[in-house]
Specification:
Strand content: 15-25%
CATH architecture of the largest domain: 3-Layer(aba) Sandwich
Radius of gyration: 18 Å
Bound molecules: D-glutamic acid
Oligomer: single chain
Largest sheet: 6 strands, parallel
Distance between the termini: 42 Å
Number of domains: 2
Order of helices and strands: EHEHEHEHEHHEHHEHEHEHE
Length: about 270
């Protein structure tokens, strides 16, 4: 069954470039879906901000996307999901998919020694949202959590390979290595862009979980269940909006997302 809203776009957002890792996975899996992506580049990073402020920003963007008649909201930002999801659930009529639960389920399926590492922003780690999501799976696993604030800075500057990035990663990831985790959740959508750096530091036997693919599968499942899959024959269209306009977001967007990345629309905050 295909319902009336099926031709509407999916709305997705992040503080900046990181959510493009989720957008890439959704475009790969669902090539006929239209997408509106909002990067809040004028207020990035979210991670060091107080929870209430991040929540306010996230609800403001979701209001804006819902006003554009999106059929689903994808919170492609762990910091926003960790702070705003409960409020958002009662506020909108459209389904909401977040990056947290799909990432946790993938990690539980991957771990062999039941020791999972979680890296994310300060907002995500201090919210304990991943602890709650792990508890909800009832898996007999422990989680070691570590905030890696400078990772977002590196990605937003387009630096995903430097020696400095590796040195910073060595410092951040030491507690996870010491705890002998065998699986690490990249609990910030910027971090898959540093996958190489993180893998070098953690070693090749450690499984890195990017929630992008797992989230895209969740989007597919939910659209299908709700009769919202777009049945158009043409390839989907993709709009990109940034609160600070073209800038670095435009420059790096094409590198991180690929050919579907088009012109950047500017939505300044008043
Ligand atoms: N990419 C975001 C996340 O998943 C936010 C990073 C930030 O703005 O600090 O948490």
């Amino acid at each position: 069954m295909v319902t009336a809203g099926a031709r509407a776009p999916i709305g997705m957002f992040d503080s900046g470039l990181g959510g493009l890792t989720v957008a890439r996975a959704v475009i790969d899996l669902l090539p006929h879906e239209d997408l509106v992506y909002f990067g809040d580049t004028a207020r990035c990073p979210y991670g060091p901000r107080p929870a209430d402020e991040v929540k306010g920003f996230a609800l403001e963007i979701m209001d804006l996307l819902v006003a554009q008649d999106v059929k689903m909201l994808v919170v492609a930002c762990n910091s926003a999901a960790s702070t705003a999801l409960e409020d958002a659930a009662g506020r909108y009529d459209v389904p909401i998919v977040s990056v947290i639960e799909p990432g946790v389920r993938a990690a539980v399926a991957a771990t062999r020694n039941r020791k999972i590492g979680l890296i994310g922003t300060e907002a995500t780690v201090s919210s304990k949202s991943y602890d709650r999501a792990l508890d909800a799976t009832r898996a007999n696993a422990t989680m070691v959590e570590q905030a890696c604030p400078r990772f977002v800075e590196f990605v937003e500057q387009g630096d995903t390979t430097s020696d400095e990035a590796i040195e910073v990663a060595e410092e951040y990831l030491k507690p996870l290595i010491d705890a002998e985790v065998d699986t690490v959740i990249l609990g910030c959508t910027h971090y898959p862009l540093l996958m190489g750096v993180i893998q070098i530091v953690m070693g090749e036997d450690v499984v890195l979980i990017s929630s992008a693919e797992a989230t895209a599968t969740e989007v597919f499942t939910r659209l299908r269940t709700d009769g919202l899959l777009n049945d158009q024959e043409a390839p989907g269209t993709h709009r990109f909006i940034a609160s600070s306009g073209e800038g670095t977001f435009g420059e790096l967007g094409r590198r991180f997302l690929g050919p579907e990345f088009g012109a950047v629309e500017h939505h300044p905050w008043n």
